[in-house]
Write a structure and sequence with these properties.
Length: 239
């Protein structure tokens, strides 16, 4: 996917040197990059003029990156990639729980960052085009579970399930192939647009969150089963 001036990225980073390098690199790749060092200002910008993608530092001087994500996610549907120096699994889990679509630890590799950005923008644009062309509402109903792609909503036994857009995408793909094993490679390729390197755990973390929200037993899941060495199976018969 080639970038254009229509692809606006909001970079929220208080490290001036890193912010300057990232802005210059991405601008040279054709993106319109806006920069702020303030979490409070980032929330205001995202709400008033939503960018196509947000690169969000996890640690900011006024409002933590997690809080920024938590505040804007209910109304901001575009991708959020968190950048942080904290390389702990708990931080990754927290970032994904509050609605981040991706999580990259510093130091950031230029080509890897560019690949992630392009992958998320490509997926997001495909989703928008699908919704515009969809016509009738696209739904998957499995007994008491209703997944509505047009509204990005999930209902279980008549009750709305609070779910992030990133979690929804994983759930939709698994439910779409209920009864079949879906590999991590396939999930990563379709959702993030780059090859699975064997170490990316964001898909696993999202599945874990989905299980919890659907009341699936994390120790002995019966809805979304882990098929070791292969991937995940959405068990059609369990519903």
């Amino acid at each position: 996917m080639s970038a254009s001036v229509q692809n606006t990225i909001l970079l929220v980073e208080d490290d001036e040197e890193l912010a300057h390098w990232t802005q210059e690199y991405l601008s040279n790749k054709g993106f319109n990059v806006q920069v702020t060092a303030s979490g409070v200002d980032a929330v205001a910008r995202i709400n008033s003029s939503p960018p196509d993608l947000v690169l969000l530092d996890g640690m900011l001087p006024d409002l933590d990156g997690l809080d920024v994500c938590r505040q804007v996610r209910p109304t901001f549907a575009n991708p959020i990639i968190m950048l942080t120096a904290r390389d702990e699994e708990i931080d990754e889990v927290l970032g994904l729980e509050v609605g981040a679509d991706d999580y990259i630890t510093k130091p950031v590799r230029a080509r890897a960052l560019l690949a992630r950005i392009r992958g998320h923008l490509r997926r997001n644009q495909s989703q928008v085009q699908h919704n515009q062309q969809a016509g009738p509402v696209s739904q998957i109903r499995l007994n008491e579970l209703l997944i509505d792609k047009q509204n990005l909503s999930v209902t279980l036994r008549g009750q709305a399930v609070s779910i992030t857009s990133a979690e929804f995408d994983v759930l939709w793909l698994l439910a779409e192939k209920a009864g079949e094993v879906v590999s991590r490679q396939e999930l990563v390729n379709q959702l993030r647009g780059f090859d699975y390197d064997g170490f990316d755990r964001s898909i696993d973390l999202r599945v874990s969150r989905i299980r919890k929200k659907l009341g699936d037993d994390p120790n002995e899941p019966y809805l979304i089963k882990t098929i070791w060495g292969k991937g995940y199976l959405f068990a059609r018969e369990s519903w």
